[in-house]
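Re: the request from the purification team.
They wanted to know what the chain is likely to look like in 3D before they choose a buffer screen. I agreed to run a prediction and write the result into the notebook, where they can find it.
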Amino acid sequence: MNREQLNNFLWENMRRIQSPELLFGGFDDNNDSSNLFDSAEVRVLVLFLSDGETRALSNTYSALRYIIKKQVGDDVFVDLCCFHNEKALGFLQKHNVPLVFGNVSHAPYWDYDVIFVSHSSLPEVINVPYIFHNAGIPLGKEERMSNTSVPLIILGGAASTSSHILYGEVGGGDRSLIDLSYFGYGEGLVDRIAQFLVDFKRSKGDLKENKKALHDALKYDAPFKEYTYDPLSWKFHYESNGMTVAKIEKVDPKVPDKAKVNYMQTKDFGFPHKVFSMDGTKSSHIDLMISSGCTGRGCCSFCAEANLAGPYKEKSLSALKEDIKTAKMYSAPNVVSLFSFNLNYYSAYIDLMEELALNFEKFSLRNMRTDIVSVDEEYLQLAKRLKSSIVSMAVEGMGNRIRNNILNKNLSKQQLLDAMRNVFLNKFLQVKVGLIITGQETEEDMEDWLNELREIVDLKNSIGSTCHIRLNHSNLIIYHQTPLRWLPRNIAKQIWNRERVLGHYIEECKKMGISVKFSSLGVGTFVEQALCDFGRAGTSWLIDFTTEENFCYRSGFKKTVYNVLERTIKRNNIDLEFMWGERPLEEPLDSDTIQFTTEKHLDNWKEMHKEKDFRQPICLKTAANLNPECGSCGYCSSKEEVKEITDRELGSRKSYNDVIEALSEARSVDVSRILVKTKSKYAFYEKTSLSHYIASMFLRESEDLLDSFYKVGFNSMFWIARSDQKAFVSGKWVFDIHWKYSIDAKYLKDIANKVSDKLITSEVVDVYPMVKELPISLRDELVYFGHIENLPSSVLQEKIINFDWKIKRATRHNRRMIGNSLILGEVEMPELKDKIYWHPKGNDMMVVMTLPASVNPYQVLMSFTGDYYRDALHRMRITMLDHAKKLDISCSCGNYLHFSLIKNDYNKVCSNCMGKRMLYLYSQNKVLSN
């Protein structure tokens, strides 16, 4: 199936595919258009290993695309491909569609020059052989390298340093599911790779035809070759059990002994250019990256990401102001979330808060160090002012020894109590305490932790707080890139043997009125630990697990995976005893081919392991650590970098009151209503995403509008979309933009014409000024016209006679909970009996409906026809005719009249009468003005 055939197939069958909007990019979403596919010199496909609904929450694609575009512009076409959700996957496989194709171009993988595989969490590694096998991509590197239809496959991402299970035997003596890998931050590396690809193609020609030369140039000749990892440059020898590494032999003398991890070399990081998801996910949010790296030798000992992140760097406030401006111009967000390991590490975070308060309606406070909360109460006051009722605190260790000696949290009991005191004094409703179950806990540790909890409860009672305490527990995964790398895998063993060990602890917590939650129930922790520890020796097992058992990973593991694991582990003769015990310090581990830390630091880890004491002081100067010292761990590359971390200036020029004042000053004083008409071809485009995109187009045209922008208000379809329902509706609809200053209506209308000319999915029909007194509301009613194929009047009449007026409604908890399936309940709505009118047209049926703003028209019609949701979307076409507000005036028929937000005028007849007239005009084949 070539690009043209695939494109036609997807458009023709869009309504048959679950979540089809995730397969259609490049339409009013800040992405490249498909036209650029033909003109770009290099075409890059970014393959994500999770489904689109999951990946839409991430900023990874926006970041990668931004980095590449900033360096090479339109010389490189960047496209997206996510793993398909379960129902879409089955449909595509049934019709022999190649599973790896571009979201924008709809070109199959063989039309791209390079595939970047983004590996963000370790369990996703399961999907690599599954995707390749089902897409027809050869599993072995040698076979791929000789096949010029397959692009070079390059791995990266947050979990890539633990992806060694991809590099071993794939069958028939062939090795490695991946051609090359890069580790660490994309900034300073991905951009150089993109430029290298462009330069190589200009000098050498087609990248796939010259794939071997490109591979070797990246490996040997590129200016960043020390970061290039070729899995075939090393040979692994194993003990008699076939799983324990005995020796690692470098077989390519031209490569470094170890590949480097790319630490952030610059402070020019961040990703303010957002790419919208067409399903509306997080369309009102933007992530603002304020810092990178963590605390060097003082990292929490269990955190692989922080241990790989390099030294702490933060972006200056002046640079962040530019990012804020860019973010507003390209996404018009209502909410900004700060992206950082620890927000209150930022040296002037109150100043930053004030800047956010001046520019956004809301901003969230997250990733706060508990030790800093204990000495600085201002952020809690800010959170309270922002109407937060819940505080999250990462305490991690249960008891002082686990918290500090093992997990190295640098958090004393007194600091914990002081932080809790601040929470209780500020009258929060709930505090969520994050904890890690390490498998190292003794009875003494558990009793120590219970005593700490009793002191916290006593403190709460003495203050008179009603704050509820909830403990959230997750299991420890021991990654090779952490100081804990040699510890026994106690948690994985307990889970595999189905042991229960915390019964007494749970009961004691309940006695204190503390609720407990465990987020790592089931076999998932074992699978993740196995994927890490099996390493290259487990590649053949992984392929068996995925291709023979047809197993793939989707954000969690069901109980049935235990049986699959037992079968495949037995079939591959894997003795799990190699995992459980403490690892000898001299035993090589797969990740030892990567320079993930300095040799000095690694020796220090060994000494800590001998003592079973992983304490290291934090080397970063913070409000809770005012006199840090450099530990000479080697993370910092210069004396200047050391000084910047250990002797930096702390404190803000602004105060909490300045932030509160900024929040009070930045408010909506004017509202403009934007009337939009969505073309029928793009009915699938979620209206909230489109609202923010169109608003950002206005802001790009005018500095005055950019400065005045406050937020994007509600839109006609808002209450349908917020319940994860699909609103496949074309026609006219409205949304509001709120301004901090009054905006001239004529000026805005002139800009609207320019915006409309640039839109693909829609057009801006009109702009209505000063509509604050007529807000878009949940109490509004929407008028729809529907065309239902193949519904004879005789069939409909029988259905209506027996209909009980129970209307199908989507529940709100479906997206992340149960595999992305839409869950429908029912609600009795007899009031709709006089608001739905039908008229036959041949073997089809026309219908006009006046529905509450939260009711999905497709689900109403499904209630009558008995269609499944996907079938309903396929054979029904729905257009919005009006968005109406009820008036205290009656129509001649006795029903209420309405004010039309579409026409910005009073309707002379009620919606029911208007619907009847429209059906009559349709029956007479007359064109409607609307």
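For the purification team: The chain is about 35% helix and 20% strand.
Please add any questions underneath this entry.
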